[in-house]
Queue: 4 jobs
Job 1
Amino acid sequence: MIERRTTAIDRKIRLDARRSVLGELLDRLNMDLTDAGCPEEKRTEIGICAEEIFVNIASYAYRDMTGDVTIEERIYQDSPQEKVLTLVFKDSGIPFNPLAREKPDVTLPESERRIGGLGIYMVKNMTDRAWYEYQDDINCLYLEYRWQQM
């Protein structure tokens, strides 16, 4: 028997790729996740990841030009006990796969570490699944999170 997935939220959020609008994205995600019964600890992790990805796009994707970011948000019931959030960050900036970055050596003292990469490392470790595609001149970063129903 095939289980039918019930989608609780399926939306697109389009924002200018500017750090000043980050709060709008985080507020929307937090509200939707709260409504979907996502535990506070998981909401915090998702917020950290969303902030990291959004700020990276706002800071680097368009260099000196302006652009936008589309965030596709989908929350659905995967089983009677589990919900899933899929976030897709899309931008038409410089092609870049953040997941391909080399893992930083977190065993080194802070003064000896190379700058950059720690935020993406955290994102990779906080998501249940992450993947990247470049389609039709668009960067598409997929982040998937799962949590148990209370």
Note: The radius of gyration is 16 Å.
Job 2
Amino acid sequence: MIGTLIEKESINNYKIIAAEDNKVEELCGKLKDAQRLGNEFKSKVTIVFNTEDGPMRIETTVWSLTDKYIQIKSGVLIPLSSIISVEY
């Protein structure tokens, strides 16, 4: 699996940038499923996103999804344009 595994609490230590390939449309269904898994079943998903330091990977619950961001614990927002993959 790509990306360095980091704690979700340390996301703010990284500068999140857009992924090389914009996969927003491709990942839309998976992100909606991830939100449902988080809200209804408290299940975690693995999200890989791009930073200036390269891809980072977290295991987290997706709390909400907008047209530009996903929100995880503590109000942390991850831009959809930075997401490389979503696995559950």
Note: The domain at 4-87 is CATH 2.30.30 (SH3 type barrels.).
Job 3
Amino acid sequence: MIKNIMIVGVGGQGSLLASKILGKAAMDAGYDVKVSEVHGMSQRGGSVVTYVRYGDEAVYSPVIGAGEADVILSFELLESARWLPCLKIGGTVVTSLQEINPMPVIVGAAEYPGELVEKMQALAVDIRAYDVQSIARESGNERASNVALMGLAADVLGFEEDVLRAAVASCVPAKALEVNMKAYDAARAMIG
């Protein structure tokens, strides 16, 4: 069985590091793994999407299509809604509550949509939304939000705890490891 995970956000939020960590965890767990990075206007705060696919059987393509994602990890709330059509029935969205205004909102051509969590819940989506920035900030650095989000999603990712922790330790730069592990542990403690 192949597990399909989409990581979505905007440029600069750490989604590429998150995909590296998940890919490493999947390899270390003995799975066949494919990772694909799809960059949007990442330098300008545009949408960034990464696909991570892994399983016991051979994974031939890194791409996840509509209705195929088991899990969507989202670093930004509107990106959760934008990529919702890719979630399979019975899938899970784990998202940050952070709102980053896209260009149409910045220039006044649109408004940031309200009540996105409630709208997704109304579609019977299993959505788990957290104030990830606060977890990371309280751990010492808001930039650890990506690792905190992975801690919040650990129960739906399908890895043993020690495998995911080891992947974080392997992929995060040494100078940022302590604060990232603190953010990961704080997130894990939140969900029990």
Note: The first strand starts at residue 2 and ends at 10.
Job 4
Amino acid sequence: MSELFVPVIYGSVRTERQGIKAARFVVRELEGRGIRTELIDPKERKLPLLDCMYKEYPPGQAPTVLEDLAAIFRSADGFAIVSGEYNHGIPPALKNLLDHFLEEYFWRPAAIVCYSGGRFGGVRAAMQLRMTLAELGMVTIPSLFPIPHVQNAFDDEGTPAQAYTGESFKPFLDEFLWYANALREARRVGVPES
């Protein structure tokens, strides 16, 4: 069986964004487990504000960025979503990115990595994100990985400042990879009709 493919979807486009360090950490941890991954950064992709969902464009007429993302998402075995907390909610760039697609997410697990500049680690946004991901057809794993004080938690390349960050990520990743493997096998056998 081929290796798993898990895109890491990051959600901030702010100039001084700190969560990109957490996203880089997640990419490194996945790669360290032999998982194929790709960082999906809305700041680099420059997605349009949602007007039409990808599926609403006539065939071959969607913007190139949406065609590219649709292909990536269709080939994914699961998603790691890295979300900050903006005013107790998820970043608008993340919501905009997610809302462009639908069927591409179906029957795939999602791991939520949340962060904030304060001590709560983005868990309030993660609760909103869990509802959104469910509506998009993803199965969120039971655990969250909250990162408080994200500005101090990693260096620019995503190396944790404290060893316990990497150590505590291991069981979280184990849980997610279990779901990714189980749901990949279930999709191979077949999924319920919508």
Note: The chain has a mean pLDDT of 96.
